[in-house]
Amino acid sequence: MAVIYERVALIGLGLIASSMAHAMKAKGLAGEVVGYAKSAESRAVALEIGFCDRVEETAAKAVVGADLVVLAVPVGAMGAIAEEIGPHLAPGATVTDVGSVKQAVIAAVAPHIPEGVHFIAGHPIAGTEHSGPRSGFATLFQNRWWLLTPQGADAAAVARLRALCEGMGAKVDEMDAAHHDLVLAVTSHTPHLIAYTMVGVADDLRRVTDSEVINYSAAGFRDFTRIAASDPTMWRDVFLTNKEATLDILGRFTEELFALQRAIRLGDGDHLHAYFTRTRAIRRGIIEAGQDTAAPDFGRAAQVAPKGG
Amino acid sequence: MAVIYERVALIGLGLIASSMAHAMKAKGLAGEVVGYAKSAESRAVALEIGFCDRVEETAAKAVVGADLVVLAVPVGAMGAIAEEIGPHLAPGATVTDVGSVKQAVIAAVAPHIPEGVHFIAGHPIAGTEHSGPRSGFATLFQNRWWLLTPQGADAAAVARLRALCEGMGAKVDEMDAAHHDLVLAVTSHTPHLIAYTMVGVADDLRRVTDSEVINYSAAGFRDFTRIAASDPTMWRDVFLTNKEATLDILGRFTEELFALQRAIRLGDGDHLHAYFTRTRAIRRGIIEAGQDTAAPDFGRAAQVAPKGG
Fold it and tell me: How far is B216 from chain A (nearest CA, A)?
């Protein structure tokens, strides 16, 4: 593929930024990849692994002459970074971000973007429970959605950013920022909060020792622990900045949970059976859409022992 | 390995029973495997795949002359099956079950077990979201725990059953039935109810269309849909029969969830960050105990595309 941006500055060098760097290099999408991270160790790792061609000790220096700047820091840190880099952005450059919340990021970043620079907020729906500059890999975005919330940004600049995302293997969709935040509250933010809560409850329970919770986790609980192992700073910021939508979906969740709890208390088996049957269909839809594997247990058995029988 | 039981009767031919049959055959642990399922189709599948040597049209016929009888039906059906087979059990035989709840199964089954027959309730902590006679495989129990709640059963009979479970690759632990039900309420029953609830909420939400929930499920939600795709009848029975422990853990869960919800509403980032940091440790424990893979996303990426970078 052809080079889409001559110089890409990655601000933040965690899972998403390092995966972008690997993907851009694998497909020849960027002329030069410049990196900045607050942590000197992360900057050193980026050079050691080689996914950045160059690192800088400040974000302001890293963005000089870049035609694409990617803000890949926790959502709560976006505003301060934008303020710092604003005066150093090249005319005609594009600034994007990869935050899990869009309205709050746009509100924090947009005021610092000078005239003549394109700001196109974005969010790749991809990730793992691992974090940091060593956790990235080139195929992270393969067949995943990358949502852009351009809010009227220049069409040519949007098309160019879209080409980059597609070049890294993603499917691109555009939507309104408020709608994004509601959809993600359903598919991501509330599930994460619930998983964190359940793991915390298990951790608290003194009658059930740690080793029992751990040994018998294969019964379902271990799936929750994967989600609850995600980066704490990133998730703190998500909940603080997508407060309204998360609280809205949480309210609905609690309402449904209470209805099922009541059915258990009253012994209403028909209600439970009907509910549990309905939820099977969504799984089939996700597998048919190529967004998950049909292999039992996510194909996890294959990681441990060959499948028999 | 040597034959441990000359004739094993499997009552119910779903995921667990068919996996046991595959495992017993692979390791030569059973002389003959006889099967019974209510559904004629399941019986035909058992013969077609060949994991049963013989099937019978009634449970009573299937248990004749068996030295091990395995009750592998939904928990709510255990009592009626036990009543039916009771008069046909061979003296000296062992009856076990694989239900996810132990106190209710013991209460339903024990009254029907004649003098001279050993009843040892059990529960393999293993499974996938798939169900039915085609879903079984020989390595399902590999490195998983198999809990026995013998409640004073004959020591030699317990040792023999333990040898069978270990022969199929499982690790065996014995515990009190009430303690089992509480532990499983934490590691399995409550997580399942929560996953079912979250998937139901997403399904209900009219502002967020089905295709958006499905397309953007990779953000975490798809993990919940796997759990919520489990067998509805089995799970209805679990909640109806482990009511007290499930309601107890649900109460604690709701309490914690409300505390986190309040922290979000008040913008208390420190509370959230501390909570999310604590839950990371449990995941590490589970991986160190060999109960899950450390590969990102359960190694799911490997099912879709080769890992790069």
Answer: 6
pLDDT tens for residues B207-257? Answer: 677 788 888 888 889 889 999 999 999 999 999 999 999 999 999 999 999
Q: Where are the domains of chain A?
A: 5-175, 179-297
Determine whether the interchain pair B221/A188 forms a contact, defined as Cβ–Cβ distance below 8 Å. Answer: yes
Question: Among A257, A217, A35, A275, which Cα is nearest to B187's?
Answer: A217
CATH classification of A179-297, choosing from 3.40.630.30, 1.10.3720.10, 1.10.3660.10, 3.90.850.10?
A: 1.10.3660.10
Nearest-by-CA chain B residue for A15: B296
Nearest CA to CA, how far is A302 from chain B (Å)?
Answer: 9
Q: Is A141 helix (H, G, I), strand (E, B) or coil?
A: coil
Name the CA dihedral angle for A18, A20, A25, A30, rounded to a multiple of 10 degrees.
-120
Q: Hey, what CATH class is B179-295 in? A: mainly alpha
Among partner residues B193, B203, B269, which is closest to A236 by beta-carbon distance?
A: B269
Residues of B in contact with A182 (CB under 8 A): 207-208
Distance from the Cα of B82 to chain A's closest Cα (Å) equals 22
Contact A128 B296 (CB under 8 A): yes
ipTM of the complex: 0.90
Q: What is the pLDDT of residues B52-76, one digit of tens each?
A: 999 999 999 999 999 999 999 999 9
Q: Which residues of A touch B183 (CB under 8 A)?
A: 208, 212-213, 216
DSSP codes joined into one string, A173-222: EE--HHHHHHHHIIIIIHHHHHHHHHHHHHHH-SSS-HHHHHHTGGGTHH
Which candidate, A54, A119, A124, places its Cα nearest to that of A93?
A119
Q: What is the pLDDT of residue A206?
A: 67
In CATH terms, the superfamily for domain A5-175 is NAD(P)-binding Rossmann-like Domain (3.40.50.720)
